[in-house]
Write a structure and sequence with these properties.
By secondary structure, this protein is α/β, with parallel strands linked by helices. It contains 16 helices and 5 strands. Helix 10 (about 265-285) links the parallel strand 3 (about 250-255) and strand 4.
């Protein structure tokens, strides 16, 4: 990269390279800049933005079920929602659910996963999100101290810290929360951080993240409960309540079912159904204040799991998916997008040309590349493989753009496009299965 480039241009190029790397290596959605390559789901995002983030989530809560096949864009969509939430200052967590590491029927593991993954927008375009409830609280306290220092009546850092401590103990300590211990742990952790009480801070961090701490070490701090399987979802509710108590806009919880095999025991399936029904009801009762709760599943979930639980089925079943005409609908169906498959891939290809130009500081013939993208899109859509055509397209297209950068631009005729798709399919078919949460 040329040193003379301005910082903004350097950041733009690095983000563009990150996007290409993620798509080219594994067909995975990028952690940064996902909306630069987003196509086809804009109508859903606009409804969420204008109906929910701008209005409903200011005082209420909502549950949405995201439906799409593996490799069909569920994770990509959740990342787009995360960016909407970040834009508005929400505390946000994307949690991958799997039967072994984080099963949704284990409320304690779900709570632990959320507190490990919750965070806000990175401080810089290239920075990683500061994941985890403890660091979220530390960052909030630092921001409060910095804001207090801008007040003329606050002369120095010590006075600013005292002002924030006063806010914690007179305002946050009175926040509406179902668990006195949870509210107390949040307040005392933040206070210990501000006052430099390292041992208290570490003990409370361990308790908040679900680690086992002897009760005797926490009683003097006003924490008398444990966090475990019996109260995992209660503590998850308390987390959302305290996020509002800390004067953040709210919480966005994005759960991604990453296992292809939804065959679980009847007992576990019933617990999952009961937990989802409970969340939907809690959203209606404002016990998850200012919270958007999304659960992403393959279509088999609605067909094979939900009908066995009438109470859940009645809450999730809707005659139409979410849209401008039905913004209150629960279902977001990623098989029903704004564009037909070939047009969606072609439009995505056009966007990736712009990203590639930013990443490699080059210029392509846009008319030629648009025609090439359409040829490759048609070849992907009209070739039916087990590998999802979106992942196949982005990996093949990024590789094709690299070749043209080195060898020169050329026209991609339909036969050559089909050959590229076939060779791309063969490469993917011989690769060990990737984690399904990295779908594009």
């Amino acid at each position: 990269m040329r040193p003379s480039q301005p910082n903004a241009a350097i950041e733009d190029a690095l983000v563009a390279r990150h996007i290409l790397q993620r798509l080219g290596e594994g067909g995975q959605p990028p952690q940064h800049g996902v909306r630069r390559i987003n196509v086809g789901n804009e109508s859903y995002l606009k409804v969420l933005e204008h109906e929910y983030f701008d209005y409903h989530l200011r005082f209420g809560a909502s549950f949405k079920l995201v439906q799409g096949y593996f490799g069909g864009g569920k994770t990509h969509f959740l990342y787009c929602v995360r960016e909407l939430a970040w834009d508005r200052g929400f505390a946000t967590a994307v949690v991958e659910l799997s039967p072994n590491e984080c099963p949704y029927d284990d409320s304690f593991k779900v709570y632990q996963a959320v507190v490990r993954r919750i965070g806000q927008r990175p401080r810089t375009a290239l920075g990683s999100p500061s994941y985890g409830l403890p660091d979220l609280l530390r960052n909030l306290m630092d921001d409060r101290v910095d804001a207090a220092l801008q007040t003329p009546s606050v002369p120095d850092v010590d006075a600013a810290r005292e002002a924030v401590l006063g806010w914690l103990r007179t305002t946050v300590a009175r926040a509406a929360c179902e668990s006195h211990s949870y509210r107390r742990a949040i307040v005392e952790f933040a206070a210990a951080f501000l006052e430099g009480r390292f041992e208290d801070e570490q003990r409370l961090e361990a308790w908040l993240t679900g680690e086992s701490i002897p009760a005797s070490e926490l009683r003097e701090l006003g924490v008398y409960e444990d966090i475990g399987k019996s109260n995992g979802f209660i503590m998850l509710r308390c987390l959302t309540q305290m996020i509002v108590g800390l004067e953040l806009p709210g919480t966005v919880l994005l759960f991604d079912e990453v296992d292809r095999n939804l065959s679980v025991s009847v007992k576990r399936s019933q617990i999952i159904g009961d937990n989802l029904r409970q969340v939907i009801d809690l959203c209606g009762r404002h016990q998850l204040p200012n919270t958007l709760f999304m659960y992403a599943v393959p279509p088999e979930f609605m067909r094979n799991v939900v009908p066995d639980y009438p109470a859940l089925y009645q809450r999730l079943k809707s005659p139409v998916p979410l849209s401008v005409r039905s913004p209150q609908a629960v279902l977001i169906d990623l098989e029903r997008l704004d564009l037909e498959p070939a047009e969606l891939l072609s439009t995505l290809g056009d966007k990736l040309v712009g990203v590639f130009e930013s990443a490699r500081d080059c210029t392509f013939d846009r008319t030629l590349q648009s025609a090439n993208a359409r040829a490759l899109a048609n070849a992907c859509v009209y070739s039916y493989f087990e590998v999802n055509h979106r992942r196949l397209f982005v990996k093949t297209w990024v590789d094709f753009l690299h070749r043209q950068l080195v060898d020169g631009e050329l026209e991609l005729d339909p036969n050559a496009a089909t050959d590229l798709v076939l060779s791309g399919y063969d490469a993917l078919a011989q690769t060990p299965a990737q984690d399904d949460f990295s779908d594009f």
